[in-house]
């Protein structure tokens, strides 16, 4: 990867005072591996990839990381974190080669650092927020200060989020404004169409939020239980 220019975000940003900065030789070596794979004489497949062509791999690696967190070993977690990191480096190397608007992995890190410092004024400035609840209560305000052009709390929610994840986030945004689903819960026997089903699912997500449950994980767990039952049935069949 090319080095950031003097005017790039990476060179303009500096870690906050008192922040320890340690060398990361293995990370630098991995960046070097990526650069070599995509350079002339490297790997033809890597060299041909684009942000769009890698999207499915990023999603797949993210799901594999979640699976390692929930069901894997520490070694599984170590490996899958590396795979997700590699996807970030891959995209950054592609971006560095853009002829119109290039940026590097250093620029990515600098942008992320500024964002995290800005969203933690209780650590890096004089705002007081001593508990996790106080931090959560101020989080949207801090985010809004970064992106004043946004006109809705829903701006920035990725369109490709899984339905339950998006429902949970929308419920969270609505709760901050005192807005909740208007439709009462339905008995499953009253479900007459997909809209009614959607309202029931939204209610179940709201119930999960109230009880501190993860609806997406609950669905994944139930699905895995079903998968286990299917496999058991398959194994017992003649």
Question: Can you offer a commentary on this structure?
Answer:
This protein has two domains: 23-118, Helix Hairpins, CATH 1.10.287.1080; 150-233, Helix Hairpins. The chain is 64% helix and 0% strand. It has helices at residues 9-12, 25-38, 44-48, 51-71, 74-96, 105-118, 121-124, 132-146, 163-176, 194-210, 215-236. The longest helix has 23 residues, at 74-96. The relative contact order is 0.07. Mean pLDDT is 82; it is low at 1-12.
Number of strands: 0
Beta content comes to under 5%
What's the mean pLDDT score? 82
Rg value? 23 Å
- The CATH homologous superfamily of the largest domain corresponds to MazG-like
Largest sheet: none
Number of H- or I-type helical stretches: 11
CATH topology of the largest domain: Helix Hairpins
Order of helices and strands: HHHHHHHHHHH
The CATH architecture of the largest domain can be named as: Orthogonal Bundle
Work out the helicity level: 55-70%
Structural class: mainly alpha
CATH class of the largest domain: Mainly Alpha
Low-confidence parts: 1-12
């Amino acid at each position: 990867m090319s080095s950031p220019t003097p005017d790039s975000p990476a060179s303009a940003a500096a870690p906050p005072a008192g922040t320890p900065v340690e060398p990361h030789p293995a990370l630098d070596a991995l960046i070097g591996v990526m650069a070599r794979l995509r350079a002339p004489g490297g790997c033809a497949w890597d060299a041909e990839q684009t942000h769009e062509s890698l999207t499915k791999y990023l999603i797949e690696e993210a799901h594999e990381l979640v699976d390692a967190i929930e069901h894997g070993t520490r070694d599984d977690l170590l490996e899958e974190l590396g795979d997700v990191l590699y996807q970030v480096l891959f995209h950054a190397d592609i971006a560095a080669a853009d002829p119109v608007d290039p940026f590097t992995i250093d620029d990515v890190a600098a942008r992320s650092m500024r964002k995290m410092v800005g969203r933690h004024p209780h650590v890096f400035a004089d705002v007081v927020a001593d508990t996790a609840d106080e931090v959560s209560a101020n989080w949207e305000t801090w985010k809004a200060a970064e992106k004043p052009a946004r006109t809705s709390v829903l701006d920035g929610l990725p369109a490709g989020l899984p339905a339950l994840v998006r429902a949970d986030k929308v419920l969270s945004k609505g709760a901050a404004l005192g807005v909740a689903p208007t439709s009462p819960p339905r008995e499953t026997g009253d479900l007459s169409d997909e809209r009614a089903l959607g309202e029931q699912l939204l209610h179940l997500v709201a119930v999960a939020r109230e009880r501190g449950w993860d609806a997406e994980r609950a669905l994944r767990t139930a699905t895995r239980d079903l998968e286990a039952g299917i496999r058991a049935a398959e194994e017992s069949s003649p």
